[in-house]
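Hello Y.,

Per our agreement to keep a running log of every chain we model this quarter, I'm adding this entry. I've kept the format consistent with earlier entries: sequence first, then predicted structure.
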Amino acid sequence: MITEQVRIILFFLAIISFAQSPSLAKLSAAPPELISFWRLTLASLAMALIGHFRGEGSTHFKALRSKAGVYALLSGLFFWIHLWCFQFAAQNTSVANVMILFSTNPIFTGLISVGLFKEKFEKRLIPVYLLAMLGIYILVSHNLHLDSANTPGDLAALASSFLFSFYILFGHQARKTVSNTTYTYFIYAVAGTCFFFTTYFRGVDFIHYPSITWISIVGLVLIPTLMGHALFTYLLRFINVNWLSMGKLAEPVIASFTAYLLFSETWNRTTLLAFACTLLSLLLLIQPWKHIQGRRTTS
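Predicted structure for the entry above:
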């Protein structure tokens, strides 16, 4: 049985993995639809193998014949268009811009979850959100560069944030009755198929790319997909969706640090201050002292 503390660790691992996505996409220097096609096709095959070894045969797919299957299909479709926008943004603006603009996601998730799915919004998330947004504002004031050259990428990053909310909210509904292995295999297959047709009809070459492109694609499969999205969708069944969305506010700082290492994008005192605000917001979010106190009381 996985404890709450282990789920928190898995959550942080997923967030760190997510944050590597824009840098890997930028490093690949290949069309976004091509990157996503190979990324999701390989990830889908990996989840199929995992499902096979776990004994998840046709009985596990029966759940997809119900309403959960509709939610999973919608989740996969939104995952497709979210990823296309995200990959496009990563190659047409700075990594900092992508992650900062994508951090509007909790706003969209909160509004849609409460309005459409009647999810509960915890009031204690308000100060967490405000503190995290302060960290993002500090980061924005230094790293966000709005100019005409970045506009297409900036708009794509904002659209990606909006679409990601629908992806996780429909996924949250599907995961109530569908196992994570089956769900992730299905949505990766749906999104991968969509990217196949997108790549084909745009006349993009499927194979002939330099080695750095393939290294980046393998990195995207292993890190943000299998360690990021797969862990995130696993947690959708156990943790409030707004709680999960709020935690993703840590991504801009982590992504900025990775971009500094790979592309020498700026990392200075302002970024450190933003990191401190974000870290404090995450500590408030998980309230570790609450768990420690509980263990002491019962011991």
